[in-house]
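job 3f2a | input accepted
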Amino acid sequence: MVRLVSARCLVCAVAHSSATCSREHISIYTLNGVPLFFQHFDEHIIPTLRLVHLCEFPIVSCRVAEPERAPDPDILPRVQVDRGAIRYLLAGANMMCPGFTSAGGSLPPTPEAVPAGALVSIYCEGKDHAAAVGITKLGTEEIKTTTKGVAVEVATHLGDDLWKVQNI
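job 3f2a | predicted structure (168 res):
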């Protein structure tokens, strides 16, 4: 069984999933035909962007009229790029350090720093939903001090081939 960070997103991926291989050596793990995770060779098992979207909505309490956020509603740490990086992100480019350190960018605070090699969801300035999922090349504290280079390698983004697949 795979238990995701958010209590709202409990997925029995091992017991009920199937894996499909493509010509690019990508395994896609599904639940009832819906892609939930993918893996390139033996690298990270990465949640699809659709799964990230399913797990980012606020929890509505029965006693309170306004929505409440769970302590950690996202299944991945959250980073944000500025408006200038959006067109490159949606084209599948890796995200550079300046996109996170400029005025519209955002990284987790120091106590919640993300190490290099970790999965993150990438949000865009002014948007409510994740636009991509990637793997950090540098830790978030290192990104804050670096002005050049790749910060996050994009694994999947809105509009890519995996996004277009709704059922297998």
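job 3f2a | Confidence is low (pLDDT under 50) at residues 1-22, 59-67.
job 3f2a | closed
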